[in-house]
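so im writing up the methods section and need the methylmalonate-semialdehyde dehydrogenase (CoA acylating) record in one place, dumping it here so i stop losing it
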Amino acid sequence: MNATVATLAEQSVQTVKLLISGELTESTTTEWRDVVNPATQQVLARVPFATTAEVDEAIRSAHAAFATWKNTPIGTRVRIMLKYQALVREHMPRIAKILTAEQGKTLPDAEGDVFRGLEVLEHACSVGTLQLGEFAENVAGSVDTYTLRQPIGVCAGITPFNFPAMIPLWMFPMAIVCGNTFVLKPSEQDPLSTMALVELALEAGVPKGVLNVVHGGKDVVDALCTHELVRAVSFVGSTAVGTHVYRLGSEHGKRVQSMMGAKNHAIVLPDANREQTLNALAGAGFGAAGQRCMATSVAVFVGASQQWLPELVEKARTLKVNAGHEPKTDIGPVISRAAKQRVLGLIGAGVKEGATLLLDGRNVEVPGYEDGNFIGPTIFSDVTTEMEIYKTEIFGPVLLVMTVPTLDEAIALVNRNPFGNGVGIFTQSGAAARKFQSEIDVGQVGINIPIPVPVPYFSFTGSRGSKLGDLGPYGKQVVQFYTQTKTVTARWFDDAAVSDGVNTTISLR
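--- predicted struct ---
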C-alpha cells in the first residue's frame, strides 16, 4: 500500500476526511498516506486508509438513504444537480488550483479536467428524458405493456489519480440523479480536489447518506467489490486493478464496468495537414505528462509522412517543462517519485532493446523545482511490436514512432494490439477516413482528432483490452448501467366486462 503509520497527534498538516451519513468525519485508522505536491515534494495533507468498520458504515448509510432517495421525484433530484453544476462552475478556478498542486498537471489542463467533468454533470440534469421507459398500447386484447427504469441501490466508484475531478464527476452525479446512492473511493494520491467537489455536492443539497466517501487501498477496493449491499461498481484505472475489480465484483453478483489501460495509436497519412497534425501529436503525446488513458502514445507514419519526423522532434523540444502553476508551462511533473522511476526504467529498456532515442527527457532540469518528478518529452523511433515500450502502457511523456508503407498495414498494426481505448487518423481523404473507421477494431475513433473522447451526449466506448463490461461510464449507456428495467404487462376490466372463462393456453387473447 505504500502507506505510512501515524497517530493524529503526529500530524502537522490537514487530514482528509471521510464522508459518512452526510458528515465529514475524521477516520479512526492508524494507517495514513501523504498527499504530496509532485513538483516540490511538499506534503499537502494526509489521507486515511479507512477501517473495515468505516467502509461498512458508509455502505450501510447509503443503503439506508436509498429507501427514501429512490422515491424522491425526478424534478427534485434534477434541481439539486442544477444547483450543483452552478457551484462547480463558480468554484472551477479554486478546484483547478488544488488539482494542480496535488496532481501536477498545468493549471489550464486542470481547469479542463474540471470542465470535462462539469459537462457530464450538466448532462445528468437531463435525466428526465434519459430515464424514460417505453409504452406499447394494446399489444394483445386490451393488454398494454410498458417498461420502468428504476434505480438499483447502492453503487460504488473507484477513481484514478490522473483525473481527480473529471472521473468522479463521470460517476456519482449520474448515479445519484437516477435515484441511487453512492460510495466513492478517490485515488489516495490526490483526493483533495475530489473532496472539494464532494463538499459542493453537499452544499447543493445532496441529502444525508446519498453520497459517501471512503479512502484507502486494496482492502477498501475489495470491501466495495464484495459487500452484500453494493449493487454496482464503476472503475477507471490500470488494467491490473481493473481486471481484479471486474472479476471480484462479478463473482459477488455486482454489475461492474472497468475502464482500463490503453496504447493509443495515431495514423498519419501523407495527405494530412502537416502543421495541424504535428501540433496534435505533440499535444496529445506529451500533454498532462502523458498521464492520460487517451494519450497518443504511438505515432504511425504511413509512407512519405515519415519525412515529418524531424519536425515533430523539434516541436517536442520546444515544450516547456515546469511546475503546473507556473505560467506558460506545457508539461508538469508525473504524479510520484515511483511513477518517475517506472517511466525512466521503461525508457532505459527501450534503449537496450534497440529503439532509437531521438529525444531524451530523462535529465530535464527545472530551476527552483529540483526535487520535482519531472520527465521531459521523449521520442523513440525504430520501435517494433516486440519491444517492452510498445507492449506496456508507459503513462509518461514518451511517444513511440513507427513507420509502415500503407494504410492497410497501419490498420493491421493497430488491430493486433490488445488494447482498444482510442485511435486517430490524420488525413484529408474522406475515402481513407471511412475505410479506417469501418475496419479499425477500437472503441473510439478520431478523424483529425488525436484524443477522441466523446462529449457526454454519447457514451465512452473503449473496447477489447481497455474495457470490461458492456456499458460505458457516461452518456445514455450509463443510465442503463445505473438503472434496472422493469417490464409491466397490464389488462384492465370494466365492471360490465363478460368473463371469457378459464384459459389454460399461453395466449393473452
